[in-house]
Amino acid sequence: MRFDIITIFPGMFSSxxxxxxxxxxxxxxxxxxxxxxxxxxxxxxxxQVDDRPYGGxxxxxxxxxxxxxxxxxxxxxxxxxxxxxxxxxxxxDSGLAEQLARSRQLILICGRYEGVDERVIEHLVDRExxxxxxxxxxxxxAAAVVVEAVSRFVPGVVGKEESVRHDSFTxxxxxxxxxxxxxxxxxxxxxxxxxxxxxxxxxxxxxKKALEKTLARRPDLLESRQLSSEEEELLEEIKRExxxx
Length: 245
What we know:
Layout (H helix, E strand, L loop, with lengths): L1 E6 L12 H9 L3 E6 L12 E2 L9 E2 L1 H11 L5 E12 L2 H7 L4 E6 L7 H6 L3 E4 L9 H12 L9 H5 L18 E2 L2 E2 L9 H19 L1 H5 L5 H16 L1
Parallel strand pairs: 1-2, 1-6, 5-6, 5-7
Antiparallel strand pairs: 3-4, 8-9
Helix pairs in contact: 3-5, 7-9
């Protein structure tokens, strides 16, 4: 899979993809990540990428011409999706990341200043994506988040694909607690069920803990989830325990 990132600050990405699973995936040829300076697609001597907005508001807006030139130069004929990183976009979640991972190419446009000319959104962009209900100075960090989230669903990026299926949100629930050695640390002990050797009990404990955490922190995820009979039973158990405590 190929990512093409369009930005006015290409230097921000110099170290973001030089470690971890992303670096290994690039070395294996599973991922290709290219960062493009938007100013390289200007035609004036000042390499201007922004201008004042019509209507008299403060701030600057990214001009349409260099963005159109960049996308049209980079876009592959098939399997390409052009995305604008903006607080006004659809919220990035696990489902959207998995969907985008089916593309051959993602072009990520990093917004800046007061935004981009609306004609870019109306006539060039396929999807607007937000990573949360807050505002950053630009879309560069958001683009890095998209690359990381989407890449995990690309076959061959994560060593054990089973670990992706058990990630928070991928399974539709927040993750269950994880423990490693030692069994006891400063008086805090690992739950005995985890070294009981009973895989069914361990699986049930993990499911219960995931449901418990999701109910406490993200109940909205449960509202949209088709619960299994075991999950319904465990949720009732959790609610009873809450009531009794």
